[in-house]
Amino acid sequence: MEHPINILERYWKFTSFRPEQKAIINAVIDGEDTFVLLPTGGGKSLCFQIPALAKKGICIVISPLIALMKDQVQALNNKGIKAMSITSGISYKDLDTLLDNCIYGNYKFLYLSPERLQQELVQSRIRQMHVNLIAVDEAHCISQWGSDFRPAYKNITLLRQLQPSVNVVALTASAKPDVVQDIVKELDFINPKIFRKSFVRPNLAYMVFHENDKYYRLETILKKNAESSIIYVRNRKLTLDISAFLNSKNITATYYHGGLSNIEKDKNMTAWLHNQNQVMVATNAFGMGIDKPDVKTVIHLNLPESIESYFQEAGRVGRNGEKAFAIILKNKSDESLIKNQFLSVLPTVNLVKQVYRKLCNYFQISYGEGEYLTFNFDFNTFCKTYNFSSILCYNAILLLDRNSIITLSKQFKNKVTIQFITSNKSLFNYLETHQNYGIIVKSILRLYGGVFDHITKIDLSKITKKASVSEPVLIKTLQQLEEDKVISLNLAKTDAQVTFIEPREDDKTINRIAKIIEQQNKLKQQQVKAMLDYTENDSVCKSMQLLAYFGEKNPEPCGICSVCLNSKEQKKKPQDLKSIRNQIIELLENGDQSSRVLLSHLDCEEQDMKTVLKLLLEHQIISITQTNTYKLSHL
User: Fold this and answer.
1) What pLDDT was estimated at residue 155?
2) Comparing C-alpha atoms, which of 422, 417, 421, 462 is closest to residue 443?
3) If 229 and its partner were Cys, which of 221, 297, 391, 553 is the partner (CB 3.0–4.6 Å)?
4) Rounded mean pLDDT of the chain?
5) What residues contact 611, with CB distance under 8 A and at least 6 apart?
6) Is the pLDDT of residue 133 over 90?
């Protein structure tokens, strides 16, 4: 067996392991059932990849995240390591071939979603594989008390029956103590080796600032720390708005969200990774698998849905060990926003039953039938037909998907394919008599060079942009070109596909998962409350609050978070604060002033000014006007 350090040097170009990685890798190689809790950026993937490469055979990796599976498979293939992922949308024949390749093709890694383990073909082939390790990524998904619980994760124990002599390594970046115990129990670990790295990040300053004007504070933070940064926002529109705002302030910024094409994602990501842009403004779709060590600041402009999410996103900062900042900017409206975004959209059991019944009716599935039938699904039309709130309906359908009642294959862009079936000469003769189609046809030809030679997938939005026409006009033109036998056209009118996993039983189907739905809704409420408590608690060190949440005993104050710094400020010599007090009063004698104007005239830190303003307000020496400026109370 090759020594792990040689594998590390050959494929990853490192000459040593982190202390915790070495112990974990040795335990996994020794055949121990192993639980690994390493915070984001702790190098979890190496903990199963190195042992799998050290032994003969193939490692089966279970992961719920298709994007992360693809990223890891691509990274391994780029190193010359044979790996594949089997995700949705693969035909039975192709699945059969891929699984045979795993048995006979010297593959080292097979990435599967937990749902795939339900297929008899997959189970049959796994029995024939020389499996050297089973790795369960995002292991918290197996626990009913963990965030992102997926009932399909319960199927993982099947692997233990199919390959009883193979050890299991479970990995996660965030799990409370009760979740850890649940994972170990559910995976049927025998004498498990449990590795927990402390969540302490001594170089990371956790800050929560209560701001009326978040944009102004954003600008000042990024200009003061003019290094690589990430800003997390609530929705796709805000990624564009905030990046445009920052660029207008001469702070280079780009954006990232799930609706961008792969080309746009890669372009924006590359610009940020190579520091051509200081700031990446993103939704929570960004960050998985990103390891950029020099990120100086992560700023949440909107509250995350849970401490788990926040800790993972904040953990992408300061991986080079230098001082870094994880900042939440909060104001009075945030509590109602987070509740509206994450709690008011939780579907009840009754709503899930209703959506499921209507879904079956929509596709005319009879009672007791429908198993493994697949349908094209126009989500917006479905919502309009039954007068459903789109967000509540979507979350109900996601619950059905997560609980393996259905599978939902999302195709957010219309899949349109065309091929020109006339000759070049005939086409231009046609355009002479149909000149109004000229700009659209020429735009297609410029964008898609092989459209005469083979069926070509086209992007309607790109063509509308290039030809300066609306999408309905473009579609009408394509349909006319098809009718005139100029092109062959396949115009998909769907944004998703739905496959029914179980026969229709209406309420009985949902009753089986009712407790899970209620429990997950309750968990979401607890998580939002914990997030709000964290942002509101200005008396306990922020780092201590986070560490206590994850079950660490007797954490120490960090000394650098917003709470610790504020405590230090309050212990400053009274004469220092008295001098600032006198300056503020003197400035306000000339008229009302905003905090920005006051700070520009004061020779002190902003936190000192805020401390003094708070004291002056408490003693009613000053008051706040309707326009959020300060004035002397006696004037």
Assistant:
1) 82
2) 462
3) 297
4) 89
5) 566, 569, 570, 577
6) yes
